[in-house]
Design brief:
126 residues; mainly alpha; two-stranded antiparallel sheet; 3 helices
Length: 126
């Protein structure tokens, strides 16, 4: 009996630690999945709203388009330090919302050398 109590206590603590690890792992997966879905919805909404506009000719016009888009978004779209960026076909950042003091000049400054945005093809609305 003297040995059974410590052994059962150790078994209980190991089971508790394993259960905590599973909860943390699953919680992280759920959080990442939710974030990806939120970003997908925001990107789809942005594309739909900006589809009716012609390409901006200047950074001032781009900033105006982006500000109008941000005002049409639900308040939860820009929580958690999310930033909207309007980027041209070469990857140059035309406008950022909310405005940043040290906004990067190119999307590659943020994404690095992988540049997954080059695989995207934007088809103009007809």
């Amino acid at each position: 009996m003297r040995l059974a109590v410590p052994a059962l206590l150790i078994l209980f603590l190991v089971t508790l630690a394993g259960s905590a690890w599973i909860q943390i792992r699953d919680g992280r997966k759920d959080t990442l999945f939710d974030a990806i879905n939120d970003i997908d919805i925001i990107a789809s909404l942005s594309a739909a709203k900006l589809g009716g506009y012609s390409a901006p000719a200047s950074s001032v016009e781009a900033a105006a388009h982006l500000e109008l888009l941000a005002k049409d978004m639900p308040p939860s779209a820009l929580t958690q330090s999310r930033t909207l960026m309007l980027v041209d076909q070469t990857g140059a950042i035309l406008a950022v919302y909310p405005p940043l003091e040290n906004a990067p000049g190119k999307l590659s400054d943020i994404l690095g050398d992988a540049q997954p945005w080059r695989s995207l093809r934007i088809v103009p609305a007809s």
